[in-house]
């Protein structure tokens, strides 16, 4: 029961990140745009993220990383939000120093590719352990 509650907390942290990201309008995306194809590797990365919990240090790091992302407006790099009306979830894999060493998105389209490039080699605060997986929902 406690594990389920903490996993729900991890998902809540992901949703908090979504609330903090930019909500810019989709200027270039067509209203009848086809949904992008799913990335089959994404489920494995999210399972790794969820396996990091329960962990008090990881839970605290979620708050730190959300604040860092929002303060530095990392999701606004490259004007990626305007590439599609569909949201993208990206999972960042961080090394011990907090550097992004891998990115995986839930879908495959130009918006997802743009975010993968925007977050490639970004330096976040050092996580409590490595590798650390950090998902971010981007609108």
Characterization of this structure:
The protein is α+β, with helices and mostly antiparallel strands and 139 residues long. It has one domain (41-138). Helices cover 40% and strands 14% of the residues. The protein is built from 4 helices and 3 strands; from the N terminus they run H-H-H-E-E-H-E. The chain has helices at 2-20, 42-51, 56-72, 110-119; strands spanning 88-94, 100-105, 132-138. Strands 2-1-3 form a 3-stranded antiparallel β-sheet, with helices on both faces. Helix 1 (2-20) runs parallel beside helix 3 (56-72). The radius of gyration is 15 Å and the shape is globular. The termini are far apart. Residues 1-29 have low confidence and may be disordered.
Computed CA radius of gyration, to the nearest angstrom: 15 Å
The total strand number stands at 3
Give the SSE order as H and E letters.
HHHEEHE
Main sheet: strand order: 2-1-3
| End-to-end distance | 31 Å
| Overall helicity | 40-55%
Give the CA-based shape: globular
Low-confidence stretches: 1-29
Count structural domains: 1
- Could you describe the largest sheet, including whether it forms a barrel? 3 strands, antiparallel
Beta-strand content estimate: 5-15%
How much is the average pLDDT? Answer: 85
Structural class: alpha+beta
Number of helices: 4
């Amino acid at each position: 029961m406690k594990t389920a509650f903490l996993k729900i907390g991890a998902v809540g942290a992901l949703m908090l990140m979504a609330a903090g990201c930019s909500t810019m309008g989709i200027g270039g995306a067509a209203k009848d745009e086809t949904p992008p194809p799913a990335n089959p590797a994404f489920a494995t990365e999210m399972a790794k993220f969820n396996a990091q919990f329960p962990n008090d240090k990881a839970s605290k790091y979620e708050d730190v990383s959300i604040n860092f992302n929002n303060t530095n407006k990392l999701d606004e790099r490259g004007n990626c939000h305007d590439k599609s009306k569909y949201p993208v979830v990206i999972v960042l894999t961080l090394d011990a120093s907090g550097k992004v060493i891998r990115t995986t998105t839930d879908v495959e389209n130009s918006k997802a590719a743009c975010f993968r490039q925007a977050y490639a080699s970004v330096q976040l605060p050092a996580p409590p352990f490595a590798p650390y997986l950090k998902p971010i929902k981007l609108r």
